[in-house]
């Protein structure tokens, strides 16, 4: 059963302007001078930056996941940090700890490597549960508690985590609560043959030096501009419908998914769909969100938030097939944005 659509409110401000090149496009082109064949990944990383989200990357070794993140950090400026997650890592290695200073006879706080603008958590699933839980507060609240003191993380702040899907020895599954903190889970695939030829030529040729095109202040300004992107109530309705259908599929005409899904997306999924769609609209040069922006992000937002049954695994049901069914049942609707403009 689908709830009635809300009444549309007119978009604030002047009439719709034509699509303009996004001011953050130069960042994308600069990173592409080094990184080849990862357009989807680069777009999602920029969307997460603009929407203040975190990204989990999954792919086999050698697909330039770490190189892409380091290249992006170099182009946007700010402070970059990397933590190699291992089974012997402890929370203090990540957030910091209190150290006794014998000279002054008092404790002092030594801040950990998490106090950066872009944190690369390499092979995050190799760290034990205590370290995973230490990330929960910082990813959601952008602060760290050491002893009785709370320390703010630099702004902007983004966690880019990687994990290897083909090695399970010495790994720890990420808790559902932590997975839900990631705006996107992006699967990084092998490049095409043509892209691989270019990659080899570029990596064995003249070294590419990337320029820093943004400062932290400029990135914060872009984030504030994204916050002003207009979201029609129909877009919010569409995002909520997609997420709610993962929790109660039979109410939305998707009864064949009921046995496959144990748990669906949380309300944070709906929030991230709308927030990410705002950033994607900004990246595409618009100051308003379209339902297709939500649909384009649906798989990356939902794939790590759904828990499947054993029957689903036996039948080969995956997040990709679930989201495909959702989008077939609920394709992006056309909405009237005013001034006789229908999109």
Automatic annotation (TrEMBL):
The answer to keyword Transit peptide applying to this record is no
Per the record, the domain of life is Bacteria
Tell me which residues make up the ATPase AAA-3 domain: 54-184
Q: Which UniProt keywords apply?
A: ATP-binding, Nucleotide-binding
InterPro entries of this UniProt entry?
A: ATPase_AAA-3, CbbQ/NirQ/NorQ/GpvN, ChlI/MoxR_AAA_lid, P-loop_NTPase
Q: Can you provide one Gene Ontology molecular function annotated for this UniProt record?
A: ATP binding
In its keyword annotation, does this UniProt entry include ATP-binding? yes
Which positions fall inside the ChlI/MoxR AAA lid domain?
A: 259-325
Family the UniProt entry places it in:
Belongs to the MoxR family.
PANTHER family, per the entry: MAGNESIUM-CHELATASE SUBUNIT CHLD (PTHR42759:SF1), MOXR FAMILY PROTEIN (PTHR42759)
Q: What is this protein called?
A: MoxR-like ATPase
What organism is this sequence from? Dictyobacter arantiisoli
């Amino acid at each position: 059963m689908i709830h009635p659509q809300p009444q549309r409110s007119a978009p604030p401000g002047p009439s719709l302007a034509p699509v303009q090149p996004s001011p953050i496009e130069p960042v994308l082109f600069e990173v592409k001078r080094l990184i080849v064949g990862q357009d989807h990944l680069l777009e999602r990383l920029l969307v997460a930056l603009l929407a203040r989200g975190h990204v989990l990357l999954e792919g086999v070794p050698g697909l330039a996941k770490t190189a892409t993140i380091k290249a992006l950090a170099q182009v946007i400026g700010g402070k970059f940090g990397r933590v190699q997650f291992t089974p012997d890592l402890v929370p203090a290695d990540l957030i910091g700890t209190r150290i006794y200073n014998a000279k002054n006879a008092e404790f002092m706080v030594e801040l950990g490597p998490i106090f950066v603008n872009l944190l690369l958590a390499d092979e995050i699933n190799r760290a034990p549960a205590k370290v995973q839980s230490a990330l929960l507060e910082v990813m959601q609240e952008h602060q760290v508690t050491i002893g009785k003191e709370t320390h703010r993380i630099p702004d902007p702040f983004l966690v880019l985590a990687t994990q290897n899907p083909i090695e399970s020895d010495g790994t720890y599954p990420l808790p559902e609560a932590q997975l839900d903190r990631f705006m996107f889970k992006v699967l990084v695939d092998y490049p095409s043959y043509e892209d691989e030829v270019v990659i080899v030529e570029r990596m064995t040729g003249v070294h590419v030096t990337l320029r820093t095109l943004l400062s932290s202040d400029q990135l914060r300004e872009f984030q504030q501009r994204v916050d002003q992107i207009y979201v029609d109530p129909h877009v919010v309705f569409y995002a909520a419908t997609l997420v709610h259908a993962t929790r109660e599929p039979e109410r939305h005409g998707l009864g064949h998914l009921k046995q496959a899904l144990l748990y669906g997306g949380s309300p944070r999924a709906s929030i991230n769909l709308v927030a990410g769609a705002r950033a994607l609209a900004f990246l595409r040069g618009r100051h308003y969100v379209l339902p297709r922006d939500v649909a384009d992000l649906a798989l990356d937002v939902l794939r790590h938030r759904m828990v499947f049954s054993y029957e689903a695994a036996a039948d080969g049901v995956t997040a990709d097939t679930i989201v495909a069914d959702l989008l077939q049942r609920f394709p992006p609707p056309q909405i009237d944005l005013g001034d006789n403009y229908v999109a």
